């Protein structure tokens, strides 16, 4: 049974860089993409981006200039860095396994089927 | 303002059937599959439906999904108290995954 364990600094000051890591236990790492998603307090979900084992990434265009997602296949881990944080980046951050597959018409599809428990990140001066 | 539109709230009594709608556009729901997530209070989201109408292993068949054009729906039959949660639809849109704003389901 695959499990995702995530960690990182929970309190940041404005302009600092958010850094989170997610470790994958109990399942294949190389056969999937891996996503980061966040949820501001009392609000909905926002997809940040994804990466696969070879380092291929897709980012949310609204965050792309500040986001870096990286992978360490030797440890079955992937990481998120978000630079120049502000109070608007305060949220619970989740990591999730993101299977990609192709439908009968050859179009790529994806969903997030295993989630980490979430890390609360607060940005405050 | 979410890209996909969901009603903010829904409710039903135990045993009832409830549906939650999700409206999008040709660039997201109209040309991609829809996934649904359930988020119980204080927990991480859980995949409920993928590829419009597929249930992952372990999800009760009380939950079903459908899609038509640029809209999708999640139906819950035989409503139970443990179904009280937030529900989110999601789809690929050009270059990112977009979510609905979420629907808070209350079991009366």
Report what the structure shows.
The complex is a heterodimer of chains A (125) and B (108). With 125 residues, chain A is mainly beta. Helix content of chain A is 0%, strand content 53%. In chain A, the strands form three sheets. In chain A, strands 2, 4, 5, 6, 9, 12 and 13 form a seven-stranded mixed β-sheet that branches. By secondary structure, chain B is mainly beta. Helices cover 0% and strands 46% of the residues of chain B. Chain B is built from no helices and nine strands. In chain B, the strands form two sheets. In chain B, strands 1, 3, 4, 7, 8 and 9 form a six-stranded mixed β-sheet that branches. A three-stranded antiparallel β-sheet of chain B has the order 2-6-5, with no helix packed on it. Chain B is globular, with a radius of gyration of 13 Å. The termini of chain B are far apart. The chains are: A mainly beta (125), B mainly beta (108). Chain A binds chain B through residues 35, 37, 44-47, 58-61, 94, 103, 107, 109-113, 115-118, and chain B through 2, 32-33, 35, 37, 43-47, 50-51, 56, 88, 90, 92, 95-102.
N-to-C SSE string of chain A, H for helix and E for strand: EEEEEEEEEEEEE
Hey, which two chains have the biggest interface? A-B, 22 and 24 residues
The low-confidence parts of chain B are none
Largest sheet of chain B: 6 strands, mixed
Biggest sheet of chain A, in brief? 7 strands, mixed
Unreliable segments of 5+ consecutive residues of chain A: none
Secondary structure category of chain B: mainly beta
Average pLDDT figure of chain A:
96
- Approximate strand percentage of chain A: over 45%
DSSP E strands of chain B, number: 9
Mean pLDDT of chain B: 97
Estimated helix fraction of chain B = under 10%
How much is the radius of gyration of chain B in Å?
Answer: 13 Å
The string of secondary-structure elements of chain B, in order, is EEEEEEEEE
Distance, first to last CA of chain A: 40 Å
- Total DSSP E strands of chain A: 13
What is the global morphology of chain A?
A: globular
